[in-house]
């Protein structure tokens, strides 16, 4: 579990973390296993953890008044899952996070995260680099959602996250793109026929 | 110019920056004035600057094949403007950034930003805190764009950025929300009538 995280840290920061520094990280992050369909976060609760996915897949979503699910993010191996607003501000979340497959996670609370950022300069640097990546990815996602047609949204997904199409059901992918399952199915057939 | 930035830095980090540390920041950031309609970034160019807005308003947008503008972000006093993907990766941008009003900016290149992050721990901390805020704001924007109706999008904008409605024309606000100007106008009338 921790070895995967250690490799990940070294890769992201292009560094080699020392045993002493990694020990702070091991102390901050606990191992948590989740079965498929279990929840890491329920709407209305305060988000407890920042979770690093070692194995498995998760989704981060809201449910509207009509009972429709809206998937904001998927997460797979080497990705992070949390509602950062709720975690950082300690406010009730408007989101749910659940496991789409059995998952092995490394989790830290807000206090533990703050502490490890102080104790490990390399972890702090990783957090900064990741925020930058997230910021770029989110900007592209905002751009796609306001200006792409359904075809372009699906093509963009196929290009950037081809594994999602194998791993997640069509209705979830449609929700993630903000298009109807019928449109998703029609556009996918058209693209595949080309 | 720099005094506003200094206050901003102190506020964001809940600290008081020393003269010695602020000098690194003054050295890294140059003053740049822009007239309304001038461009900070053209599509196809590599983004040169991270810009802090001291006075004025800007927009960050793309133009699609049909010539339609899609506004990803607005920026006003105390906000940052840049295409971070292009700036960090030094790749051609798919966006334009221009001035909606006459602007006073403080700008730094990628190299200068990296340098000042090394020289000033407080600046580095500010960058980290801002990334976190951006990440939260972007997540809310993604969520709004995939699951809100046109009414909800406009209500959300009115709640979070009421000054935008006074400051920017309706067609730009409609583009920012990813709805047509006709829908924007109709929904706004309905909301105001309530």
In short:
The structure is a homodimer of 194-residue chains. By secondary structure, chain A is α+β, with helices and mostly antiparallel strands.
- Assembly annotation: homodimer
Distance between the termini of chain A: 43 Å
Q: Major beta sheet of chain A, specifics?
A: 4 strands, antiparallel
What's the CATH topology label of the domain at 2-118 in chain A? Jelly Rolls
Chain-averaged pLDDT of chain A? 93
Based on CA inertia axes, which overall geometry of chain A fits? globular
Can you list the strand order of the major beta sheet of chain A?
Answer: 1-8-3-6
Largest interface: A-B, 31 and 31 residues
So, the CATH homologous superfamily of the domain at 2-118 in chain A? Jelly Rolls
Number of strands of chain A: 8
Order of helices and strands of chain A: HHEEEEEEHEEHHHHHH
**Structural category of chain A:** alpha+beta
The whole-angstrom Rg of chain A is: 18 Å
Mind telling me which CATH architecture of the domain at 2-118 in chain A this is? Answer: Sandwich
Low-confidence regions of chain A: none
Our estimate of the beta-strand percent of chain A is: 15-25%
CATH class of the domain at 2-118 in chain A: Mainly Beta
Helix content of chain A: 40-55%
Quickly count the helices of chain A: 9
């Amino acid at each position: 579990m921790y070895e995967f995280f250690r490799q990940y840290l070294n890769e992201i920061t292009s560094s080699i973390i020392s045993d002493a520094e990694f020990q702070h990280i091991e102390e901050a992050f606990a191992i948590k296993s989740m079965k498929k369909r279990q929840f890491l976060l329920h709407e209305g609760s305060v988000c407890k953890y920042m979770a690093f996915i070692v194995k498995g897949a998760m989704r981060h979503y809201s449910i509207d008044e009509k009972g429709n699910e809206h998937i904001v993010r998927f997460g797979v191996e080497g990705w992070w899952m949390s509602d950062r607003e709720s975690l950082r501000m300690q406010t009730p979340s408007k989101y749910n996070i659940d496991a789409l497959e059995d998952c092995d996670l490394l989790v830290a609370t807000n206090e533990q995260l703050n502490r490890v950022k102080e104790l490990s300069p390399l972890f702090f640097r990783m957090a900064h680099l990741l925020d930058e990546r997230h910021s770029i990815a989110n900007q592209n996602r905002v751009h796609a959602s306001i200006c792409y047609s359904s075809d372009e949204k699906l093509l963009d997904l196929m290009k950037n996250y081809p594994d999602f199409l194998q791993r997640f059901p069509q209705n979830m992918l449609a929700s993630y793109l903000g298009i109807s399952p019928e449109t998703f199915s029609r556009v996918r057939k058209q693209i595949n026929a080309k």
